[in-house]
Amino acid sequence: VVSMALTVLRRLIEKHGVQHSDVGMLQVSSESLLDRSKSIKSHLMALFEPHRCTNIEGVDNYHACYGGTAALFTCTNWVESSAWDGRWAIVVSTDVSDAPKQYPFMNGAAAVAMLVGTDAPLALEGERVSHIVNEWDFYKPVGWRVMEPIVDGPASMEVYFGCLAACQRELQVREGGQAFVDGHDFLVFHLGSGPKFVRHAFETALAAAHGESVLADEEVAEHFERLVEPSLRLA
């Protein structure tokens, strides 16, 4: 995870001509920490130390699939805060996914780096909702014999759908009764176990907004193809 993180961070800096001295925040997310105390972010400072640039805030965000989102929110919050000093924030998400034998599709490894600042070509809207609860559907206990998580697939899906429904209800209250599935040109869902999982999530959200029997199968398929399918091209 450190090697991949160093690679994507170096590529981002070089490709976009970012000066090391112009980076003021660096947040990392992962499910595969190497140490229970030392952050991956501290490893990444090796790219900045030769340039005598060590005044960079940030540590690691460690929370399964949500860590990357949390790291991004932390960086955008910093850029919008009184603590911001005009420099760039960078998010690095890096992970090695070791999966139980019954879930081979969850194996993989990847890293991505995101540059965060003002006047961005991709802007985040201020409106957002979180629904975080204490569950035991996916976890990696200290001392566990392998790096793969303890997973209850069906339970994980129900936890996700429950959180999705709760967020949708809160957004619907804020937005004057309009469901989020009707208020946007495109929708992006957590990939979970793959495109079928996303289809199920969308249908769940659509049913919560309109009722189980309001839309015909053809209408559901049309809505999915128009709103969600473009986000699944790579998957």
Largest sheet composition: 4 strands, mixed
Sequence of secondary-structure elements: HEHEHEEEEHHH
Distance from N terminus to C terminus (CA atoms, Å) equals 22 Å
Helix content: 25-40%
User: Tally of extended strands?
Assistant: 6
Look at the structure and give the mean pLDDT.
92
- Described by the principal axes of the CA atoms, the overall outline is globular
Strand line-up across the major sheet: 2-1-3-4
Please provide a written account of the structure:
The protein is of the alpha/beta class and 235 residues long. It is globular, with a radius of gyration of 20 Å. Strands 2-1-3-4 form a four-stranded mixed beta sheet, sandwiched between helices. Strands 5-6 form a two-stranded antiparallel sheet. Helix 4 packs across helix 5. It has six helices and six strands. The chain has helices spanning 2-15, 40-44, 67-79, 153-174, 195-210, 217-227, and strands at 23-29, 60-61, 88-97, 108-116, 138-139, 150-151.
SSE diagram, text form:
Elements: H1 2-15, E1 23-29, H2 40-44, E2 60-61, H3 67-79, E3 88-97, E4 108-116, E5 138-139, E6 150-151, H4 153-174, H5 195-210, H6 217-227
Parallel strand pairs: 1-2, 1-3
Antiparallel strand pairs: 3-4, 5-6
Helix pairs in contact: 4-5
Task: Kindly list the characteristics that best describe this protein.
two-stranded antiparallel ribbon, 34% helix, 14% strand, 6 strands, alpha/beta
